[in-house]
Amino acid sequence: MSDIVDRVNDVRREVGNDQSPAGERHTVLLRRLYAAEIEDVWDACTTPERLSRWFLPVTGDLRPGGTYQLEGNARGEILRCQPPGLLKASWVYGEGDETEFSEVELRLSQQDAGQTVFELVHLVAADPRKWGEYGPGAVGVGWDLTLLSLHWHLSGKDIQDPRAWQDSPEARTFMTHSSRAWGAAHEASGVPAAEAAAAAENTAKAYVPEP
């Protein structure tokens, strides 16, 4: 299990707030290093065939100003695309209201030969009660799972049955530690320790219910 915990620790997490005329929004940031060239990471994140292998099938008009749909998940508009370093899109989950104005931004930068810094920022328009109950882990754990899947994909080890894997002891360990890591990031953002810990525990229970 130590290897899967190491994958949790590969990611640096930050939580912030954003004030807008529409009200308070939150940001979750994930940053990690991949042992791959920037062009390979970009291609994995923007080519539909590769996305379907490690993330989700995607359809739409995949260009700036076009729209996209992730199968069974989010949809939105592609706001900016600057290969191989920047991709920004609006993010509407399920049947959500597009006025909630969530955004996802992917930033890539080459660190050394064969190493790419990957940053993902999700600007979240979350219900205040839901955010208070679950904190950043409500979206952060899902993104941690995504970054783990990308790590395996870039290593040539795609999971053949992601749904079955998420019920495995390894996945339960990963999601539990991910929830705690987001609790620590939540506390580091200035939230009282007890509040951050309670939200992290609620997140862990949601992702890893008792058998």
TrEMBL record:
Residues 1-16 have a biased composition (Basic and acidic residues). Residues 1-21 are annotated as: Disordered. SUPFAM superfamilies: Bet v1-like (SSF55961). InterPro entries: ASHA1/2-like_C (IPR013538), START-like_dom_sf (IPR023393). This is Polyketide cyclase. It comes from Streptomyces lunaelactis. The lineage of its organism: Bacteria, Bacillati, Actinomycetota, Actinomycetes, Kitasatosporales. Belongs to the AHA1 family. Residues 36-150 form the Activator of Hsp90 ATPase homologue 1/2-like C-terminal domain.
